[in-house]
Amino acid sequence: MTDPARAHRIAIPPALEEARSLAVALDGADPLAGMRGRFTLPSGAGGRTLTYLAGQSLGAQPAGARAAVEAELDRWATLGVEGHFHQPGAWVEFDVPVREPTARLVGARPGEVSTLNTLTVNLHLLMASFYRPTGPRTRILIEAPTFPSDRYAVESQLRHHGLDPAQHLVVVRPAGADRSLDQHLLEAAIRAEGDRLAMVLLAGVNYATGQRLDIERHTRAAHDVGAVTVWDLAHAVGNVALALHDWGVDAAAWCTYKYLNAGPGAIGQLFVHERRTSDAELPRLEGWWGNDPASRFRMAETFEPSPGADAWQLSTLPVLSTAPLAASLELFEEAGLAALRTKSVALTGFLESLLDRFVPDAELLTPRRPDERGCQLSIRVPGARARRDALEARGVVTDFREPDIIRIAPVPLYNTFLDAWTAVDALAGTTG
Ligand SMILES: *Cc1c(COP(=O)(O)O)cnc(C)c1O
């Protein structure tokens, strides 16, 4: 029988130099190889292109991003306030072109997604709607390690409702620090909370371990005990396939500056299931941009919600931080998420095999099964600082977490098999 954790693995030759030739051959056979040229990759001293493996923190710049922003600066310079309504490209509907590509990426109906604010703000807006503690049903369940902002947001929501996080926050922890979670135990923890559980807030892909959770399974468990689910998809969107509508997820939010490559602090996005957006009783924090565009500019006293997830909008769309998103989503449309994911499984599997062979003292913290991770691998290494310095000296950009964890994300849109080899070559040449 084929071991699902190994089926995707590529046989690695015994010497680093031969492995390099293999990487070059794999790049030569990569149908998506041309996408790399559609990015401006970070460069180091003397203008040499860096080996950029940090897309899980900030995605590389799509070559079209600059022109997309400049076009809006030009419209502003020439049209002034008329730019809001002047066609083509009126700013009042500037988010329209990103709607369908976004819906395709997350497996949503177009009306279930909206482009607004930034991630932590959107988590708060979703909790204002979906975290409604009543009677004994007060608890929020999260997993560890939790991205700090999510933890602060959840704890402050509890306090906002007059509840003490020490009593009402449930944190499901892995067996060892920085390890991945046992998903059986996670599901069991959700079910065990029963009617004390109001909301589950989990990450689709964990920022620290790179573990991908089974969103459908944990959503079902939460629903079975009467709780709602809000998913943080910061590390999942543009990285793994999602089917938020079919999985029945209540709501989700994500940023666009990681795998969606929209640039630092770019506009955020959210999903609210149509089953929820059609519920007139669902409370919401509101602003004029959430008013139906058909009546928004009548400036009436009563709020008429936009259909779907757009009712969560608050403010005028930040056009300059949305323009690069549009440029980036065009590349996802062109490449196709299915093809990207196929490459991603091979590329990350290649990196994993190289690490196993040439950096045997690295401990992999990310699950080995491709369906339990995205592109990122997190490793714990002895002599992590020396190794980070070696990577840096070699022009390899990764993410270092104190005291000894290195996160490496080969992104299928712009990374190569040779990039993975280069990182491993730098790590292998340095010991703890
Ligand atoms: C990147 C990330 C954030 C960052 O939130 P911002 O509000 O965009 O600064 C929050 N949560 C998770 C899980 C993340 O990965």
Q: Would you give an account of this structure?
A:
Helices cover 38% and strands 12% of the residues. It has two domains: 151 residues, Aspartate Aminotransferase, domain 1, CATH 3.90.1150; 262 residues, Type I PLP-dependent aspartate aminotransferase-like (Major domain) (Aspartate Aminotransferase, domain 2), CATH 3.40.640. Strand 7, helix 8 and strand 8 form a beta-alpha-beta unit. The mean pLDDT is 95. Helix 3 crosses helix 12. By secondary structure, the chain is an alpha/beta fold. Strands 4-10-9-8-7-5-6 form a seven-stranded mixed beta sheet, with helices on both faces. It is globular, with a radius of gyration of 22 Å. Bound molecules: pyridoxal-5'-phosphate. Pyridoxal-5'-phosphate binds next to helix 4 and helix 5.
Tell me the helix content: 25-40%
Largest sheet: 7 strands, mixed
Number of helical runs? Answer: 15
Per CATH, the superfamily of the largest domain is Type I PLP-dependent aspartate aminotransferase-like (Major domain)
What is the compact description of this entry?
The chain has 432 residues and is of the alpha/beta class. The model has no long low-confidence stretch (mean pLDDT 95). The radius of gyration is 22 Å and the shape is globular.
Features:
15 helices; Aspartate Aminotransferase, domain 2; Aspartate Aminotransferase, domain 1; seven-stranded mixed beta sheet; binds pyridoxal-5'-phosphate; 38% helix; 2 domains; alpha/beta
